[in-house]
Amino acid sequence: MTLITIAGQPIETLETACPWPGMVTSVCQLSNSALSESECLEPSALGNLTSAKRKRMFLAGRRAAHTALRRLRPSESPLPILRGDSGEPVWPDGFLGSIAHSESLAAAAVLECREPVVGIGLDLEPATRRSRHSIRERICLSDE
């Protein structure tokens, strides 16, 4: 078994310890997932994805997103996440989220929002010392 970490933390930690109140995350490993088109709540969104790799990444991202939505609203029926004109996820009313993919992972961060929020972002990239420093300069205040 390979231990996959994000920012030095096991994936399971990321899924349970999100630093922002009300935000839920979920991660899906592509290599360990039996992903099926039949489980997709938005089958029409698969129509223009031609390669098996892109379909697998799409399905893994949607699985992660639906898992996060279920964590926010466990008693509700699954909510569809539609696909916008540019391929972006269109979240159900009252939710905002982000989906990211890499060669081996898909992740989603979802927030239930009652007030207007412009957006949230999530990205999966290999972290080097240099990239961590560059990212920290862009997104953190000097005292963080």
How does CATH name the architecture? Alpha-Beta Complex
- Please identify which CATH superfamily we are dealing with: 4'-phosphopantetheinyl transferase domain
Strand percentage, roughly?
15-25%
**Quantity of strands, as a count:** 7
Net shape: globular
Bin the helical content. Answer: 25-40%
**What is the C-level CATH assignment?**
Alpha Beta
Number of helices: 3
Q: What order do the SSEs take from the amino end to the carboxyl end, as H and E?
A: EEHEHEEEEH
How many domains is the backbone divided into? 1
| Structure class | alpha+beta
Based on CA atoms alone, the radius of gyration comes out at: 16 Å
Distance between the termini: 35 Å
- The stretches of 5 or more residues where confidence is low (pLDDT under 50) are none
CATH third-level topology: Ribosomal Protein L22, Chain A
Mean pLDDT: 74
Query: What order do the strands of the largest sheet run in, or round the barrel if closed?
Result: 3-7-6
Main sheet: strands, sense, barrel: 3 strands, antiparallel
